[in-house]
Amino acid sequence: MATSECPHCGYGNPVESQFCVHCGTVLAGQKAPPASDGESAEEAEEQSGDEEAAPSEPSEEEEEQEDATGSSGAGVSGTRPHLAGEEEEAGEEAGVGGSGSGAGGPGPLLRGLGGLLEPADPLSYISSGSGGLDPTVDRPTALMVELRADEEERGHLRRLYAENLPTAVGASPDAAANFVEPSRSGNGLQRRVWLELILLLGMAGALLWGGQSSPGGAGPHALPGLEEAHWQIDGLQPNSLVLVNWAYDPATAGEMDLVAQPLIEHLLQKQAKLIVFSQLPGGPASARRVIARAEESLQRPSRSQITANLVIEGGYLPGGGASLPLLGVAPARALPVDPSWVDLRERFSIAGLGDAGPALTLVIAAHAEDVRRWLEQVQPLNGGTVIAATSAVVGPSVRPYLHSGQLAGLVSGWDGGSAYGRRLDRARGAVEQARSLRRVSGLNWGVGILIVSVLLGNAAGLTERRRP
Amino acid sequence: MSPFSSGLPGIMEDAGLILGLVISLMIGSYIVRDSFLARLGQYVLVGAGLGYTAVLVWRNVLWPRLFAPLMAEPISWQAAAEMGLLNFWAPLVLGVLMWAGGLELLRRPPERLGGRSLLRLLAAVPAAILGGVVLGVAVSGAVQGTLLPQLGAAVAVSEGQAGAGQATRLVRFLTLLITGGVLIHLQLGPNAGAMENGGTSPESALSEGAEAEDEGRPRLYRVLLLTLLRVWEGIGRRALWLAAGIVFARLVAARFSLVLSRLEYFLYEVPGSDLWQLLWASLRGAGS
């Protein structure tokens, strides 16, 4: 399979790729490196065919060619940053005083959000235009030398990360450069697509037909900490102040809604006063949706009025971990109450938080960092009781806090949420039961297919190893 | 009525559902091929997210906590300290500096040292304050919220006190064994037990020790020590992989939940919406 190197990170992509699989750089219009003067197109094709048969390191000829072009075009490092080190060395050896940054111009500043765009590279931005510090003298300054050293180091790191290789403890990083990545052969990628399709089809089939089977089985397994969380909420007096840190947004709502909703239902059943805030921009919107659903499950005639008296939206609190200590010392000052709901603030007297603190704090988090931040920044200051509702993957990371007593309860994953929901004292509708059954079937099928795939993959690996 | 009770009109919710379907399909087309539509969906998602965040920051933070109080109290610099309004002016000045520095970075660097360079330097001040505060809070938090309580819990476990996980003696022993083994593995790697002798493998260390013993030198204790290290490191290495397997299993459970949620959305929520039914009925009507 012919590959073309990404100009940004050096990753080997299929030649027809429009974008780099690794970093997202646009590859359209940047095909394989042009053949040199003496080479014909056929030779170039032949060369690419050889690469397909045995992907290897760039040949010396190619490197020389790159050196030649790199020395004449000083701005190449702006467009091929992972080669910046080699290009600049070549430029210096050839005696061309390329600054390595003049022609590229500054790149887009807005990068790196959610891994969807190119990774941010502020140093290259600075260096890309700093050749103009003194237009009359085209030689590197001390600052440029320093930046260039950084470029070399970062270029090396980019190559390492692009190849995504495990490095043994104490091994030389250069040893990784000689490793041929298995996925470059293309076989691994093709198998992965098939595996993904089988997984999707299996889970979709289970969703479609899984709800029609008769309910049975013992249900999801409850991990330690769930019983304690239930006990803590069950012991709340009516009108107790409960602070809810809503630390997930729609990106992880597919799982987290299932964990959060049973706990919110339980809190509303106990008539606790919830003060909900979030440190994520999408957090308040997610909270609104889940609380509205929990409200519907209460099945009371005047549930809107009940919820209006029980829930107050604390709003969006930016600042990450740095803004949390104030929440531990003076929560009424720290909470970002929406100004359009000032009357609610007066009615529910958030100031009461400052006097006695919350009766309970519920951290609903998709990442372990959010739970840890709370236990490090807030709980030591107010000494309140904290329970956490987390994603499945977070469970093992925060479990030590449960054992040390810092967490009073822990509900993690869809299975935890489902087990908690079964403990609630309310009837379940047919639609809700069918939905739950569908999800159980879907998860079981997904896990089953994955286990079979892993077993088959291991068997195939063993077979391959025995071949001469 | 609380904000949690108020929802959008039904038709708007349905429109959001359909729009979500279209963008999901655009991004999901990446499975087939990396295309313009897949990229467009991603950029729309990122752009909408950033716009929403900007509005939220203005509505929740900048206006109610900074600009509204400042506009309500038109004050002079002289009176600011007395009225405690430095709480507002200082963040405003630092924020404006950061804004100006950010805008300055969008332009090409200055050719000569001057006002623009000074602005770049000044913009580093709020950034430094921000970074310093974040680091300081993180370090102090790690000590007071993780290190000390976890150490305390470990001591309580070893002393058999209640409230620290009800650990049995076996669990305490395993905790010590695995923690020590993992630390040895992370520090010395798979060659633990061989490095001290300068050998390349534990076997060479053993043979070296045996030879030394034949020569009459008492080096058996070294061999035992190195063997103990090697075995302990092996336990730690395997425990590390076991832990990674557990985390991976929970990660799979989390991601499967997300996939199921999306599939359920396609298979049940979208077809059940009024707008979809309307579209479907009109399509069927047009077809017949």
Describe the structure.
The complex is a heterodimer of chains A (468) and B (288). Helix content of chain A is 51%, strand content 9%. Chain A contains 19 helices and eight strands. Chain A has helices at 41-53, 60-72, 76-79, 84-93, 122-129, 142-163, 187-210, 226-234, 253-269, 283-298, 303-310, 324-329, 331-334, 342-348, 351-356, 368-382, 395-403, 413-423, 430-466; strands spanning 3-5, 12-14, 241-247, 273-278, 311-316, 360-365, 386-390, 409-412. In chain A, the strands form two sheets. A six-stranded parallel beta sheet of chain A has the order 5-4-3-6-7-8, with helices on both faces. In chain A, helix 7 runs antiparallel to helix 19. The two termini of chain A are 24 Å apart. The model of chain A is unreliable at 34-140 and 161-186 (pLDDT under 50). With 288 residues, chain B is mostly helical. At the A-B interface, helix 5, helix 7, helix 9, helix 10 and helix 11 of A face helix 2, helix 5 and helix 8 of B.
Task: For this entry, give a set of tags.
heterodimer; A: 468 residues; alpha/beta; six-stranded parallel sheet; two-stranded antiparallel ribbon; globular; B: 288 residues; mainly alpha; 78% helix; extended; disordered N terminus
